[in-house]
Amino acid sequence: MQNYRIAAIPGDGIGREVIGAGLSALDAVSRRTGRFTISVEEFAWGSEFYKSHGVMMPRDGLKQLRRFDAIYFGAVGSPDVPDHVSLWGLRLAICQGFDQYANVRPVRILPGIPSPLRGKGAGDLDWVIVRENSEGEYSGHGGRSHRRMRHEVATETAVFTREGIERIMRFAFQLARKRKARHLTIVTKSNAQRHGMVMWDKIADEVAADFPDVRRDRMLVDAMTVRMTLEPESLDTIVASNLHGDILSDLAGALAGSLGIAPTANIDPENRSPSMFEPIHGSAFDIAGKGIANPIAAIWAACQLLEHLGENGAASELMLAIEEVCAAGVRTPDVGGNATTEEVASAVIDNIRDANS
Ligand code: GGG
What we know:
This protein is α/β, with parallel strands linked by helices. It has eleven helices and twelve strands.
């Protein structure tokens, strides 16, 4: 029987609560299918680790992770560690270190989850946002000098390479091609960002020539927020730069009901390194320890992990369990319910165990 090795990094705040729920769901679905087993090694890296070691993960952290089939990540960020230190020291260090250049963010209104969009419910919003995950505004280029002087200066350089754009564009077109609508919306800000973003548009046109069966259109990122809100059914697959994709997917999560249900996959499409799966949300210290964090995003991310491993049947079973539990009204407070993290996770696990038995 196939055994998959998963590295779990719960990280900070509610990351620890939702990853526990997701691992239980993974265990339940692997037992139910009887086709594979999962062995999990947990890494206590994050802000607590930083406070005692001065680094978010050990120097050889990537080397330790490389031997796994996938990484299951919780959240990063703590009130007493600067956010740029915690983010760059762990999550971005893994994404960049493993060149996980495709960040895939499915967004749907799940049955039973209220959306803030007037008159919209399950089925009315079904998108996949592909966020470029290795360069752009998050390249890490820039610097700060003349500190504490009147002419103190900081630069944050957005780096766009032909290779980086071409590979994410090709990935997005391929993904769009697999979906029913076969429609890709390319988001830029090429009226104002007249170098990198104009190159995005140019390379999108070039790559599109290889995908005549995929309908495409272009949006400026500001206008895109309006279209997402007012005409959600006009969108399907969306590709955007690192920062634009980050912002749009938070909006998307909120429009689908809550960031608490939004998952994400950091993929190395060439499989040179393990890919990483996580909820979009951060550590949410305001609710950490209260037992009310929504585990659905983390469990949905576990579905993405299973799909990536080629366990599509198990991924579908787990997704169906999520949908049935939401539809049955077992919901945490962020989506209008009063269930706890544990109650939602238990309902998903019971649903998997009871399926067709
Ligand atoms: N689970 C995702 C997470 O912890 N995100 C924290 C964060 O601030 N991310 C910024 C980003 O995605 O660029």
